[in-house]
Amino acid sequence: MINFDYIRTSTAKAAVEAKAKSASSQFIAGGTNLVDLMKKGVTSPEKLIDINSLPLKQITADAKGVLIGALALNSEVAENAIIKTKYPLLAQAINAGASAQLRNMATVGGNMMQRTRCSYFYDITMPCNKREPGSGCGALQGQNRMHAVFGTSEKCIAVHPSDMCVALAALDATVHITGAKGDRKILFTDFHRLPGDTPELDNNLSTGPGGQKGELITGIHIPANSFTKFHYLKIRDRSSYAFALVSVAVALEISGNTITNAKLAMGGVAHKPWRLSAVEKFVTGKTATKETFAAAANMAMEGAAGFGQNNFKIKMGKAAVAEALLQASQKI
Ligand SMILES: Cc1cc2nc3c(=O)[nH]c(=O)nc-3n(C[C@H](O)[C@H](O)[C@H](O)COP(=O)(O)OP(=O)(O)OC[C@H]3O[C@@H](n4cnc5c(N)ncnc54)[C@H](O)[C@@H]3O)c2cc1C
Known about the structure:
With about 325 residues, this protein is an alpha+beta fold. The protein has helices at about 10-20, 35-40, 75-80, 80-85, 90-95, 100-105, 110-115, 120, 140, 165-170, 190, 275-285, 290-300, 310-330, and strands spanning about 5-10, 25-30, 45-50, 60, 65-70, 175-180, 180-185, 215-225, 230-235, 245-255, 260-265, 275. The longest helix has 18 residues, at about 310-330. The radius of gyration is 19 Å and the shape is globular.
């Protein structure tokens, strides 16, 4: 790890100003991803701007929904009474991620901004267009068991590793952002990017339409909803402390045995949480049966393409979507 400056800020304005002044500075929250990346030489910020003293830890609800501050810890969000009763899908997804110790350090903003777990990205002796644009993609012809089956490009087939973000994408959340020129909001589903020709850009913070240098996530808003049935299914190599091979977030409203509203998103399959809008439309108005769920699962994986070692994700994805729908529909 190379030397770096460290400053602590106590207002969002000061944090944004400090970041705008130095191109290679980075905010640090829990540090559970950033410090690893610094130790491995994947990133070498000249300055760390500690944002932990900013007043962004609140979780407040009203009739319109809940606002979660960007510095709320993953463990605090998952254990919060409002989240557990009104947005249990989010609590379930967070608790499926990392370990208790990590969730006690990791923040909402940091979780959204965490980098891919592609081994070529972490190994600075290997080519990786995300880490070093133009160097190539080692995973295309290499170890790609964990990689994407949707939305890939010839430059990058990495996935976004978060569990929390899959639930937030399904629940129509909005990201609240502040920058030098003021505040803005982005739909959660528009926050993360597909790799295209610029895999070095994970998301639209600072770089997307309306983006400004040095932007800071201040919070996440989840609109109120009347879903009564939820399930977050995560399939992984170990039953804890492992990133998703495939995950599925489902929220349903069911009247009698008819699905009247549905939200679905997948994780572990793309460079961003993968919302299943066509599947949502397909299941709405249908009876909640295994046949409906099997047809929905086939539809969910239409267009998926593997790269050899990760071909199994297509079959696994179908099974996961059908199972997550079944589990959600059976919640009492
Ligand atoms: C062993 C291990 C296993 C894990 N397993 C899982 C898992 O199964 N599922 C899962 O979802 N996650 C998993 N994680 C990832 C973990 O959830 C993230 O490391 C964590 O959420 C990052 O949050 P942080 O606050 O520590 O971020 P930091 O490391 O402090 O920051 C990460 C990035 O976010 C930026 N940042 C932080 N806050 C803001 C903000 N408010 N605005 C703008 N930028 C910001 C920082 O500049 C930095 O670039 C695992 C991590 C480890 C180490």
